[in-house]
Design a protein that fits this description.
By secondary structure, the protein is of the alpha+beta class. It contains 10 helices and 8 strands. It starts with a helix and ends with a helix. The relative contact order is 0.17.
Length: 304
């Protein structure tokens, strides 16, 4: 682009910006009204939208000690031949635990265990009294019965899935479990209950597998006369016994709670500053659009 062309382009741009400014000044009432309406709509949205609170817990995976891990790795092949699962490596256990925590089966059992359908589908949080209230048209909180056709538990699962977030930090391996919900008390309770229940479930599962394996291995031990095989069986029984002992003394079997969930006092949504800023921007662009549409319409009328 030549110097003359570049100067002409810059001059045209300056004229365009000046023209926009002159149009806004000439139609400042339209600009002010449209921008004000946009801000008022943003304020209205802030007031009518129920606040959402986020409660989260920070977890650390419980690792298998080094000696136990080495023993399990050494005995993996031999145990596999015997049909016994000793692959209780820490990494795979954590992966399975996270997958279980997100699974439909676990969450459905969680909803049924704590009777959460009414809380998820027919309750609301009253900020003035700091209490949870049921929709009187849907659910009778006194008699604990639905006043409409009882919703499917899959509806409850859909809501729970939408508010539950489980994430793992790839850098340090720490896991965050969070719930964003209109009731800050329930959000805190549910996060802590989910962690407690997943620890109990995996613990119970490993206990049952280990005890079943020990019984099976003892029967095999009584049948074999080979000294080498007996030594292998004793070692596998030892590994399974360690699992039983670890599970018996540790409630935080898979996830150790570093920072438990607490009741939050401030909401994460609606974000008042963000919504007001967006409302202001929408008002500016809308008013400019209306002003230039008006100008174009007047130009067309004059040309006719």
């Amino acid at each position: 682009m030549s110097d003359v062309s570049e100067q002409k382009y810059i001059a045209d741009q300056e004229i365009d910006f000046k023209q926009i400014w002159f149009e806004i000044v000439a139609n400042r009432m339209i600009f002010a009204v449209v921008t004000t309406i946009s801000l008022l709509l943003a304020v209205l949205y802030i007031f009518v939208t129920p606040p959402i609170y986020r409660s989260e817990a920070l977890l650390s995976p419980v690792s298998v000690n080094e000696s136990s891990s080495q023993l399990l790795n050494q005995l993996g092949s031999a145990a596999g031949i015997l049909g016994v699962n000793v692959s209780s490596g820490s990494n795979q256990k954590i992966v399975n635990a996270i997958a279980t925590l997100k699974s439909r089966v676990f969450l459905l059992e969680f909803i049924e265990k704590y009777s959460l359908s009414a809380e998820l589908l027919a309750s609301k949080w009253d900020e003035t009294t700091n209490t949870s209230e049921y929709d009187e048209k849907k659910f009778d909180g006194v008699n604990k019965v639905w006043l409409v056709e009882p919703p499917s538990i899959w509806d409850s699962l859909k809501i729970l899935n939408s508010i539950l977030k489980v994430s793992e930090d790839p850098g340090n391996g720490l896991i965050t479990v969070s719930i964003e919900w209109q009731n800050p008390v329930q959000a805190k309770q549910w996060v802590n209950l989910l962690i407690s229940d997943i620890n109990s479930l995996i613990k119970k599962r490993d206990l049952n597998e280990a005890q079943t394996s020990i019984e099976y291995l003892q029967r095999q031990l009584n049948r074999t006369q080979l000294v080498e095989m007996q030594q292998v069986l004793y070692q596998i029984i030892e590994s399974q016994t360690r699992i039983v002992m670890l599970a018996d003394v540790n409630d935080e079997y898979v996830f150790q709670v570093i920072d438990p969930a607490i009741q939050q006092l401030s909401s994460v949504w609606p974000n008042k500053q963000l919504l007001l800023f967006v409302g202001f921007l929408i008002g500016i662009f809308s008013s400019i659009t209306i002003i230039f549409l008006k100008r174009s319409y007047i130009t067309i009328l004059r040309s006719n």
